[in-house]
Design goal:
Layout (H helix, E strand, L loop, with lengths): L5 H6 L2 H4 L4 H15 L4 H9 L2 H20 L4 H18 L1 H13 L4 E2 L22 H25 L1 E4 L2 H10 L1 H6 L2 E5 L5 H6 L9 E6 L9 H9 L15 H4 L7 E6 L7 H14 L2
Parallel strand pairs: 1-2, 2-3, 3-4, 4-5
Helix pairs in contact: 3-4, 4-6, 5-6, 7-8
Length: 290
């Protein structure tokens, strides 16, 4: 019998000597069962994926073996065997994830996705090419995977792709009517414009997995003012001939967002006079969205 076996480790009293946790012992025993054919690969992978404590036990065991090696180099063979077994468990657990990863890359070939859906009734401007095109494979993929793989598909899909919206109104519609998007989205690029900017950005903290936000600004960004600026412009129209960055609808809500890893501001019209506004926005986000 190979030395890389939990049975062999038990005969040498390794679990008690190394003080291996019950969680890692369960996984190592499952690896033995997998090798003899009494446990299939899906079941073993499920043992790892569905338990955060077991996943943590694998990492902790590898660290523990590394520390033992530093103190006692004579334990190298046993420690290496345990580390290789832990690595094999992790590889088995990720087989399905890697398969879904390949399927997504072959079906959705671009890193940026324009979400399909009913067109927003707003009259916000369109920039670049924003025609939504879906192949039959794109439409069928989530359905073909079924309930068993559906949740894992969405987790991987939303982790890999960035979703681009032509206006805040369109983003708001997806947040309100697409539960999968709301639960899993990590990367969003949106053209900051439209009368729903404040309502949209107010909901961003509810996107618990959101990591990065790209804001495209243009002259259209300056069209809609917040409630305070709109009221003041009624009484002081001359003072509001040049719109200030602090007057833009949605800025107050954006500055309340916390925890994002990346925030980018892009001027979609580099030759326009709004370049100064873009620079002001960058400084605001560096100072506030930390």
């Amino acid at each position: 019998m190979s030395s890389k076996s939990f049975f062999v480790l038990k005969t040498k009293a390794i679990p008690s000597r190394y003080q291996l946790s019950k969680n890692i012992q369960t996984l190592l025993e499952g690896l033995d069962s997998y090798h003899v054919g009494s446990l299939d690969v899906e079941e073993l992978g499920r043992l790892v994926r569905l338990s955060p404590r077991r996943r943590a036990a694998v990492a902790n065991t590898i660290t523990k073996c590394a520390n033992i090696l530093k103190k006692d180099p004579s334990e190298v063979k046993t420690c290496v065997d345990i580390i290789e077994m832990c690595t094999e468990i992790l590889e088995i657990a990720e087989i399905r994830a890697r398969t879904l990863d390949l399927i997504i890359d072959n079906t959705f070939r671009t890193p940026v996705v324009v979400p399909a859906g009913k067109p927003s009734p707003c009259r916000c401007p369109r920039f670049d090419r924003d025609n939504v095109f879906q192949t039959s494979q794109m439409k069928a993929l989530p359905t073909l995977l079924g309930m068993a793989l559906g949740e894992e598909f969405y987790r991987i899909f939303f982790r890999k792709k960035r979703f681009r919206f032509r206006c805040a109104c369109e983003l708001l519609a997806h947040i309100n009517h697409n539960s999968h998007f709301k639960d899993h989205v990590r990367h969003i690029a949106v053209h900051w414009c439209g009368p729903e900017s404040a309502n949209t950005f107010k909901l961003l903290p509810q996107l618990l997995k959101l990591e990065s936000l790209t804001l495209n600004i243009s002259k259209s960004t300056l069209v809609h003012l917040n409630e305070r600026a709109s009221l003041m412009r009624t009484y002081f129209p001359l003072a509001y001939r040049n719109i200030r960055m602090s007057d833009i609808l949605g800025l107050d809500e954006l500055l309340l967002v916390r925890g994002l890893q990346d925030v980018h501001v892009i001027n979609v019209q580099p030759k326009s006079n709004s370049h100064g506004v873009e620079m002001d926005l960058l400084q605001y986000f560096k100072a506030e969205m930390v």
